[in-house]
From TrEMBL:
Gene3D superfamilies: Endonuclease/exonuclease/phosphatase. The lineage of its organism: Bacteria, Pseudomonadati, Bacteroidota, Cytophagia, Cytophagales. The keyword Nuclease applies. The keyword Ubl conjugation does not apply. It holds the Pfam family Exo_endo_phos. Residues 95-299 form the Endonuclease/exonuclease/phosphatase domain. It comes from the Bacteria. This is Endonuclease/exonuclease/phosphatase. It comes from Mangrovivirga cuniculi.
Length: 336
């Protein structure tokens, strides 16, 4: 377990190094269980036992430091507000699992929650046809980029969309969406993405995923409009790359100081972590953030209510040092 805790610190892009960034809470629990077993069943500790206990204790402390920002004990990044202002926006995102045919569960969820914006990823032509028929009359603004490779992306909006572009930032078969949402007299820049995960069945290296995330982070930082970034990033909230993204983009994570909001894996309760993300700029305040019931996908949908208040109150953006700036550029260059 100590090895599994320290391996991601090597910052290698191969999947065997990066996959251990995901189950940090699980590793924390396993370390604690092992230590508890030691004290429960052993009385006479040998030198090797003491060394192991010290290493396990150090591992718990290190993992606690890593997951602490996503506990209720940590300061929040995005302040909360209660409002029914016309400048509110409700966004629902869901990785539907391309081979999931229980379309009705998602349709009912949409009907119940009535979001302004819906982002669906891993969507095939069947998903496009079904969802367009079911909600197209309500969501008249649509970006329909279905694929049969599990990287399809559908965006439905009740609000007007302007300057919409479907981009292929790293690979020609993996789309992302960039658009302006018209909210009253204001405009909001929305970036939607779903990069490849670092797993042998898809891409054994995290290089492309990291680069796509960081390219969007740089775009967000250069944007003068309020910004929302949403999607299944195939990366956990506490990873090094996600932290680099927050520092690069100057965006805020509404989960910080509130909880994990695990979205994957919906089918295995003991193996869950936050893979689906919604980040926003400091122009917003949080009304509500929640994960939604299962739609028979391996991901839970997540929904956020944001208020565009332009209130520059106390928030804690993560600051990037010069070494990290160089690292961001190197990661992007490696994928080009």
């Amino acid at each position: 377990m100590v090895f599994a805790t320290l391996l991601p610190l090597l910052r290698h892009d191969f999947w065997t190094f990066r996959v251990f960034e995901f189950p940090r809470l699980q590793k924390w629990v396993i370390n604690l269980v092992i230590i508890s077993i030691f004290f429960a069943y052993f009385d006479d500790f040998q030198v090797i036992d003491i060394i192991l206990l010290v290493l396990l204790s150090g591992s718990i402390l290190f993992l606690s430091y890593q997951i602490y920002p996503y506990t209720v004990f940590s300061p929040i990044q995005l302040s909360r507000v209660k409002t029914d202002s016309k400048n509110n926006i409700r966004l629902l995102i869901s990785n539907v699992y391309q081979y999931n045919k229980q379309y009705g569960k998602l349709i009912k969820l949409i009907s119940k929650n009535d979001p302004d914006i819906i982002l669906l990823v891993e969507t095939s032509a069947d998903w496009r046809e079904t969802m367009d028929k079911a909600i197209g009359d309500q969501y008249t603004e649509r970006v329909l980029e279905d694929q049969e490779n599990t990287y399809g992306m559908l965006l439905f909006s009740k609000l007007k969309l302007e300057n919409t572009h479907v981009n292929y930032l790293i690979k020609k078969e993996i789309p992302s969406i960039e658009t302006n949402i018209v909210l009253g007299y204001n405009r909001i820049k929305l970036f939607c993405l779903h990069p490849e995960p670092p797993v042998p069945s898809e891409n054994a290296w995290a290089t492309d995923r990291d680069a796509e995330i960081l390219i969007v982070g740089k775009k967000a930082a250069e944007e003068s409009l309020p910004v929302i970034v949403a999607g299944d990033l195939n990366d956990v909230a506490w990873s090094h790359t996600t932290e680099l993204f927050l520092k690069t983009s100057d965006l805020l994570d509404p989960r910080r100081g509130r909880g994990f909001y695990n979205t994957f894996n919906a089918k295995y309760p003991l193996l869950r972590w936050p893979l689906d993300h919604i980040f926003c700029s400091h122009h917003f305040q949080l009304i509500k953030l929640t994960t939604l019931p299962s739609i028979n996908s391996d991901h839970f949908p997540v929904m956020v209510d944001l208020a565009l208040t332009f209130k520059h109150d106390e928030h804690k953006n993560l600051e990037m040092d010069n070494e990290e700036k160089v690292e961001v550029e190197e990661k992007i260059e490696k994928a080009e």
